[in-house]
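Incident log, structure service

09:12 report received: a user says their structure output differs between two submissions of the same chain.
09:20 pulled the input from the user's history:
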Amino acid sequence: MRQMLLITLMALLFGAAGIWLVQQDQGYLLISLGTTSVEMSFWVGAIIYFVSCGILVWLLLVVRWLLDAGGIGRWWRLRRSSRHSSKTARGLLLFLGDDWQASSQILSQSAANSSMPQVNLLFAARAAAKNKQFDRSRQLLEQLKTAHPNVAVRADLCLAEVLIEDLKLEEALAILLSLDQDHKMVLRLLSNIYRLQSDWSALCALLPAVKKQRALGEQSLRELQIESHCGLLQSFTNKGLAGASNVKILGEIWSDVPKNLRQVPEIVAAYTDALAATDTTDKGLAILSKALKYQWHGELIKRFGSLEAKDSEKQLALGEKWLKEHAEDPRLLMALGRICQRMGFLGKARDYMIATIAIQPTAQAYFEFAALLSLIGDSRASAKMYRQGLEFVVESSA
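09:34 re-ran on a clean worker, output below:
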């Protein structure tokens, strides 16, 4: 309110001053153009001049506003931005719809005028990779790194993913090792590479960082831990090396297995195989016995039957003790049959295998029973079992 009063007062003062100056009649202006002439007092001409200049400046400002921030220019920019945003949205929808070729093309073409060019180029590269256009994908990512250095890390991670899909693991590994090793995405991609390379030692060494940075969910981390430790134990077993030095190495491998995973059936089975490879089967029997008390598992029972323990009598007695609680378990019956066969108790082995087939016939049970009958000397019955085993396979696959 005060400002309005002040402005009104100033306008009245300037108006009064203007009228006073005009009344002074000090000089005049004569403007002649051809046969036309205009005559006025100096102060009237000055007032007209300043008012005209003010109106011209005001008109120029209005035109600038219309063409720039608040008018036609803004409308044109919004219209163009909306058009390119629509292209980006369409490209992303095509990406979600697995139309990789069209998605990559639309996103890459609209990237230059997009309000979010980084997103356009990233998804265009991913779409090209999904379409097996790995060279095109790499080209788009290099373009992204050049044009937008602030997303270089994201571009490198995407490039590493593309290289992994293209099975260029060494090149992807070099990129990832140059990045921050505490980055969750880096850790996830490194674990994928080590899995594909079956580099179980490197994967086991990476697991503490994966766990610390929570790069994977609890279930995924547990699965990765089981796979990596099983892989490391199996690779040791495949070497088939005995001797005190290898027993020590195996002990170090086992000590690196987290305590909460040492009763996992898959890991126990792999460790038992490794112990058998180093001729420490008695320790393997003790490990299996403890694990089966903790969890009754088919893979462990299978290992129990195939483990050639030095103290076979103890092994058989332990299995028959379990039989009191698991009398109808065909896996245990088959394991006991195998143990008896190795010990030379062929009649007893025959009884266990008959019981196994009666409860749960399998092709393997038929063939092992046929081999046992052949060993006993009953070739006729052995041939019959082989035939029944083949019929079982045919019926199962039909």
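09:41 both user submissions now match this output. Likely a transient worker issue. Closing.
09:42 reviewer note: The longest helix spans residues 42-67. The chain has a mean pLDDT of 84.
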